[in-house]
Fold tRNA(Ile)-lysidine synthase.
Amino acid sequence: MALLHMVAPWARRAGVAVRAVTVDHRLRDASADEAKAVAATCATLGLPHDTLVWEEAGGASLGNLPAAARAARYDLIAAKITDVHGEAACPILLAHTSDDVAETFMMRMARGSGVDGLARMRDDWRDRGQRWLRPLLDASRAELRDWLTGQGIGWIEDPTNDDPRYDRARIRAGLADLGIDTGRIAETAQRMASARDVLRRHAFEKAQGICRVEAGDVLIDLPGLSRLPTETEYRLLTHALRWVSTATYRPRQKSLVEAIEDIARTGKTTLSGCLMVRKGDVLRIVREYDKVGDLRSGPEALWDNRWRLDAPDALDLQGLEIGCLGPKGLKSVPDWRKLGIPRDTLLVSPAVWRGETLVAAPLADPTSGWSAKIHHPWGDFFTSILSH
């Protein structure tokens, strides 16, 4: 509510169009009325407002409910902005505060997180094809409440914030009981963010000599990787996995260590939606077929969040879809071996389909007139190490 009332007058002065979005998770009986209250406030401010409903709320268990709700919230907002504005630049403002920074720090510390997990949450990043901003990270909840009170503006308290069934509520209550200054914790999180940036820079520099990208895969020189400090080795591996799968979160370190052991023992494993294959001194990280085998999108949309296909000029795109090439499609390209691209890679490469009929396979058959290029929302593999 504070962010809304701060942004509205600024937008009028700056001539900037603002649209408000409320996500109704349908987790409480009062949530629909609260969304209506926000809509009424927006009407008085002259701002358009949308209420987006999480229809799958009942499918999440209490244990993973906050994470599922958060992911759904970001998905719904990003999809709405894309519907309204297409691919035009349209930053999304979120009202997280320094208290959120401190609580997240304590939650992650309790889970044994490393530097990245303990670093202050980002204030400017790209995800789901959108730019997200947190302009209030240096403000506390108390400061925002004081400001609202001074402006004569009311707000609604979410009872979930005090529900001890949830980790964040317990952390919040514990900090209050112990009298711990959340501002100091937020400062520590900022120092951890500075340390994270140094580690990212080191990983970026080392990646130049041991990593390369081929056909959407990341290839890593294993002898070079083994000479790196363990922290940098893990950082490069997790970044490669996330870049190939566009996963929001990195795998747990325990899972990563087990995957490394599997590769040493068998030469092949899966993790984070990727297939990891060792051939000689090279580790190849490929998209996992089971994760994209049934994925279809329109011919002009990003496929698997990172592939953009371009059709021959004047081609009618009606009835066409983008899906992975798969075993069936690969059988229709008899000369694919001449390209020198591994079968695992071609199976998950984007292809053009009309129903069950293969129209084009840009990576497996470059003569089709179609092209396929990576348009990753994070940017190229190397520079995205510095931001993701």
User: Anything to note?
Assistant: The CA atoms of residues 215 and 341 lie 8 Å apart. Residues 293-374 form one domain. DSSP finds 15 helices and 15 strands in the chain.
